[in-house]
Amino acid sequence: MNFTRWSARLPPIPGTQRRAAARTGLAPDRRPDGSAPGPDRRSDGSVPAARGERQADGDPTPPGVDGLPAREVLDRVPALVALVHGGDHRLAYLNDAYTTAFGARPLGEPARDALPELRELGLLPLLDQVLRSGRPRTLKSRRSPDGRSYTFTCTPVRDPGPGERATAPGGAGVLVFATDVTDHAEAADRLRASERRQRETAVTLQRSLLPQVLEQPDDLRVAATYHPGGTEAAVGGDWYDVITLGGGRTALVIGDVMGRGVRAAAVMGQLRTAVRAYARMDLPPHEILQLLDGLAAEIDANQIATCVYAVHDPNEGRLVYSSAGHLPILVRDETGTVVRADEPTGPPLGTGGWMHASGSVPLAPGSTAVLYTDGLVERRDADLDEGIAALERALAGATGTPQVVCDRLVRSAGVQADHDDDVAVLVLQHPARTGPDRELFRNAALELLGGVEAAPRARAFASGVLASWRFPPELHDAGVLAASELVANSLQHGTPPMRLRLRRTDRRLIVEVTDGDDHLPRRRRAEPADESGRGIAIVATIADHWGARRTPDGGKAVWCEFTLPARRP
Prior knowledge:
Helix content is 32%, strand content 25%.
């Protein structure tokens, strides 16, 4: 192989002829008058020398790129250079840098034998592509056997010379140019490792802030799932929670902090803690979101969050909710019909200046409700409504336990390990009780008209109902006493209409009295001479839990709970 002939025909670097012409003030190959350029003449419009200094008369014109000896240049460049030719890529040339890096190689041998490092790096197929297409190709940041990283650029070398025929369709040879990018590769590795550690920290924080075990209400079956985004996506601030409010009522919440990383997870944790604290106040859903809205702005004014807060009361058979910019709740009834709870919806938390409102959606026995974050339905190549509609279709055909429904919805949405966003799903079912299980869930209510006969009627009613439910004597007596004290408190401090409600589940007995006055009672220490103030204290002493809340009609409800003895298997 005559390298002198090859090096003389190496493709010129783009722009070098134009820059040489600019230095001499001439066109690359012709004078303005059309004659061939002379070696030491310039036109009147030539560009001055560097820093404005003109060359002295008689100084020779600097040589152009075409005048440089190619082999001498390639021998001295710090990059690795190799020249191969023919269909089997026989080695024609190696520069000093290549020999220093990998050692001497026999010329004239095929690259698969003479350059084993290229074979290990997978460059031989790339050489075939370059030879066939006649176009350069680049392979970025490959780690070589010597432990260093290189970026390889393979450029076709055409036309081996006059009177000779090319040995391949796209050209006769390939120039391999390798640049050492070890420092850049190591910096990129360190950056990826740092990002991976940060993501792992965020995922750990996120999972630790989510409920480890969901509370399981008496009247609902609940399941939830959380899928962090793929390794290329930073963890977001999705969260969910189930909160037992007492009196048989349950709060369900799901939200999404609009951010990424540890900061979003930290904000999520603060909001979730605040939701649980506000839920203990047993306020309506829209008032809970109103409090959260102000708190979110105080936590971080630059981050906002969407949230749905819903309350289920088994006595009402519906789900009362309020939404702050979140996606609609979906409810499937026992016939398979799916209802979308679209209204009312306010702006996200942290925006301020908005009065949230509560709405409701039926949740009869046999119904299933789904709360979810946008990662389940939002796709970059599709409209959001299309994603919600697809989720509705999936929910219409999803049966089984809440966990089974969760898994089916996630699979139907195509959520995999490399998903580009976090996904949180909360599924709740209000099961239809049948058979012996139905006997464990009973309700009884009495309207109280007031007057001196109201208290005796309430005691007689409670005694009869609890006896029919076959409670043990001590629980029967405690329930009758609690009903008597709550009714007496309502008669003294409340206003009509009044109602006594008894409810049993498989785990507890609930006694509740409602009236038309919104003043909430509180437990206090009664002095020996006081004629009142002992009723709530007695209830708090004999019951496992008690509480009070305002009702949507402007009144209040006071309740207490007794834990039932464990059933024998």
